[in-house]
């Protein structure tokens, strides 16, 4: 057993506490394990102060030699030899390297330097070496050492009984131990590291910045020992190649799963992770992730592949089919110069249940896109394309459009005549479906805005807008909702909108804080506009909300325009005092014209007087956050939209709750505007410094009369999750149970279990 570098100092009285029974038990168990007690070496306290009496920089080097400067309390010269002995607070300096010791003996004839007594060596990378005695070359390179501790700049610690430098410059350490954990708690008291790696021999290559372990074993909580063959870490804190800790989980679809990964650092800017997934009730699967960082940007490619049986969920087929199955996800962004960039993303799966069965993603659609952008101070250009793969049951992929090209150009400049700002826009879009309606669109828009402040403090904004549209569509009869079809062939329209918006902020004090009460009114006028002749592709999910109450067009896209004359009024209120912040708004609009509305019943906008909408946010420090969004029927005062999201607690202990109730009573044929009711709960409770329990649940409360298509019975749990976790500065350990209540194809309902174990600061990813 290697001797300790030095005995740890007596712990302060605040650090002395009685040992709990569990700790005593763990200690007795640890004594029975075949391990060497190196923890005192790793946990040695380090001085915080810099080396004192640092000498000035040495004079400029002559030739290839770099001189060494030193300072000491006393220097002795031997009369009959070439030895110089420096005594007391000795500091040697060469470039970015320094050595501090109680005594340094320098043989000028051989060039050997021997430092002894509280030796502290700092190399050019900021790593520190502490030892009792060390032999140095005239370049301050270490030779033989005893009872040493290396404190790396990135936080890791390496202790060893002995060390020696071999001919190639590497340092061989024997009976070594390494940890990346903290050895002191927040109060500065000694703390046993959660894990450490012990090794028979360690090769320290300071030139390559690598540490290689031979005969390495991982000790976790002084109880668990695992072999780590071929372990290497970086002294610079970067990643190195190696095996990762396996993940273990159990699911009703695949049985027990063990996923083992190998991480390969191809270069400092590129890496690859390959994973093998072994299942007890499914064929094996492989996955990989490649990441790269270039001078222009970054990108990554992730892929999964297997050959397994699947159950189709569309087309009326029965039974299982064995076939190749997989998923690819790639994304990245390249910045060619300050104004030009390219962004791309690809997400494709071989079938609709693959992602859910293997618990990769629960998205109901996969979107792929590519976009070229040019952005400067006054203009914006985007050329993009979009493609979506649906994962939803009962939705035909042939009805999902491909959007290409989508070109959008905008330019903003100051109005030289009336003042204000002018923005012009050119936009074109082509939508193509394999089994549905095709639509092409182009429009040009000019918008002028002028903002002024009156003497009484009112903020007045005047807006004028002109737009011309050209549409072409075909196969319109394949769109099942008449309201979205439009007329086949070429269609055109002109749009003109004028608006006046007045805000009057009133500032004052109340309840020991500051409040801002802002009444707001708006008048918007748009002449009759042909809407139903135009296909509706991007303005379907219309709904009155606090976010679009004062919008010039309450439809979300370009294909529908809200015409007529309307008057909108509302009030914003904001209150702030130390630790508190409250924001609220409420409003309503009145349509002054008599033409029929194209807005569907139930959206809150179809009648002359709209429903009442509002939003309230309450925040207390970082402990309480509550947001409430609502829409109230103007006639019956029934709550048509009720959304509550609340978070209470700290980072370690908190509870999140969410409730959504949409009671709009819209026709089931409008699938974009279905009613629903849902509750969401999640929480975490931390205890005993590093332990926590957590859980979450999603429950569908939608009744059959609200949405007969979905088929909910009024109380339908979708997912629940419960788990426990341990996490400190260098280790993660968790056990999670999850239950899925819905089955789709070969993605079965049932219980899933997952064990997650990860070591931090070990050099892998």
Automatic annotation (TrEMBL):
Residues 72-138 form the Organic solvent tolerance-like N-terminal domain. Pfam families: LptD (PF04453), LptD_N (PF03968). Residues 1-39 form the signal peptide. Keywords: Cell outer membrane, Membrane, Signal. It comes from the Bacteria. The keyword Nuclease does not apply. Residues 324-691 form the LptD C-terminal domain. It is found in: Cell outer membrane. Belongs to the LptD family. Component of the lipopolysaccharide transport and assembly complex. HAMAP family: LPS_assembly_LptD (MF_01411). Involved in the assembly of lipopolysaccharide (LPS) at the surface of the outer membrane. This is LPS-assembly protein LptD. The gene is lptD.
